[in-house]
Amino acid sequence: MTVVDIHAHVFPEIGRAESRRLTGSDDGPWLRTTDGPDTGMMMTGSAEYRPVRRTLWDPAERVADLDRLGVDIQVLSSTPLLFGYGLDSGRAVDWCRTINSRLLAYGAHAPHRLAPLCQVPLQDTEAACAMLSEAMRQGFHGVHIGNHLGDRDLDHGALAEFLTHCAEEDAAVLVHPWDLPTGRRYSRYMLAWLAGMASETHLTILSLILSGAFERLPASLRLLFAHGGGSFPYLLGRADNAWHRRDLVRADSPHPPSHYTRRFSVDSAVFDPGALRLLVDVMGAERVLLGSDHPFPLGEEDIGRLVRESTLTPEETEAVLGGNAVRFFGLTPLLKEAVR
């Protein structure tokens, strides 16, 4: 049974001097490492952001992890801290091009096991479209983007234009929450991650639905939301009820929210068998893909265990563990290379 993990992060070895040169700021993201095991620290300027394992920047360690965990392929995306959406366009292009080159180099360590997604300067639609086209020619398997840009959600004209371009380039799109809510209510107990991430993804999905964006976006667009779609699948009944009862809710959407679950996919990173069962019931087994958030501490440590030990049927289990991802990201050539 093929196992493909589609939600896994990389932070390339970018030191502070290089970050300062590319971003023009002393507060840019960089990686502090030492020669010892598991001794990395994600940094923003002089501030420590998060301790990290060597797997995050060392592809040999990554492959060793995959071997130990029984994962055949991992789809890799940059750590959201690296998006660079706050940079001016020129610096953002250079920054994303640097990140992308490091991701390609990382994936080249085991090209039949590691499938990188590019990132783009989403704040400049023309540049983002051009970089996406360039990246797909370079061998990337799609693009990794944040779920919003300031107060603009993915239904905004410029962002929807980029998504249309992704469909035209046949590029899969992984949407990850970022720039999470702040303030004292979110600063304790990692609540920005525990509550903010789920609500951000929920907000983005509903914005695409209720604005009518899915009526305008190409049906061929392959869109995938991390973290099980946030709280959307579990509150879908509330959204449907509101659509039927309030004209303010249905003003721009000709169908209730449940009609649009066929237009996107989600990963399986929900960490509870009951939640996974509900997720599959809401989305359909063909639209749920194995995702771990590896190698971060809040990710699934034993990748795929939740799916294997769930109440899913054997057919559903096989689809979620890998079959869906192979189709979604076009990974058949990697599997053939692995067998050779």
From TrEMBL:
Keyword Signal listed: no
SUPFAM superfamilies attached to this UniProt entry: Metallo-dependent hydrolases (SSF51556)
Biased composition (Low complexity): 33-42
EC number assigned by the record: 4.1.1.45
Region Disordered, annotated ranges: 20-42
InterPro entries xref list: ACMSD, Amidohydro-rel, Metal_Hydrolase
Coiled coil: none
Broadest EC class assigned to this enzyme: lyase
This protein's record includes keyword Lyase: yes
Top-rank taxon: Bacteria
Stated family: Belongs to the metallo-dependent hydrolases superfamily. ACMSD family.
Protein name, as recorded: 2-amino-3-carboxymuconate-6-semialdehyde decarboxylase
